[in-house]
Amino acid sequence: MVGIAEEYDSQIHLIIQEYLELQKKNSEHELLSLVSLHPDKRGFDMIPDFMGRCLPADFGGEHPCLFAMGYYYAAMRNAVWGSPYELPPTLKKHSEESEEFFYESLDELFP
């Protein structure tokens, strides 16, 4: 069984792959603006509003960061394929609450 840390690492790897593919096709694509790829292409930083943009308004489960990253990956995959893509419906854009929720979820992964 895969642990949470391994799942997180897998999500990062998949997102980086899709980021690079989408960047080749359209370097100005709006989804690319939600993360900033590290120069070594082994990681990325999320914009402060990432959770506000990628976490569904009705989310109530565990590991919100993984859930938001999954939505982001799916949207990027569809964009790379040229299919319609969308991020989940959210009630609000960035807020201190959504940012705090994001950092709390990271604390769970890396105590």
Task: Describe this structure in a few short sentences.
This protein is mainly alpha-helical and 111 residues long.
Account of the 3D structure:
This protein is mainly alpha-helical and 111 residues long. It is built from four helices and two strands, in the order αββααα. It has a two-stranded antiparallel sheet. α1 (4-25) packs parallel to α3 (64-81).
Oligomer: single chain
Number of helices: 4
Mean pLDDT score: 82
Strands in their spatial order, largest beta sheet: 1-2
Give a short account of the largest sheet.
2 strands, antiparallel
Low-confidence parts: 91-96
Order of helices and strands: HEEHHH
Helix content: 40-55%
Amount of beta strand:
5-15%
Number of strands: 2
Structural class: mainly alpha
Termini distance?
20 Å
The global form is globular
> Radius of gyration over alpha carbons?
14 Å
SSE layout:
Elements: H1 4-25, E1 35-37, E2 44-46, H2 50-54, H3 64-81, H4 96-109
Antiparallel strand pairs: 1-2
Helix pairs in contact: 1-3
Please give a handful of descriptors for the protein shown:
2 strands, single chain, mainly alpha, 4 helices, two-stranded antiparallel sheet, 111 residues
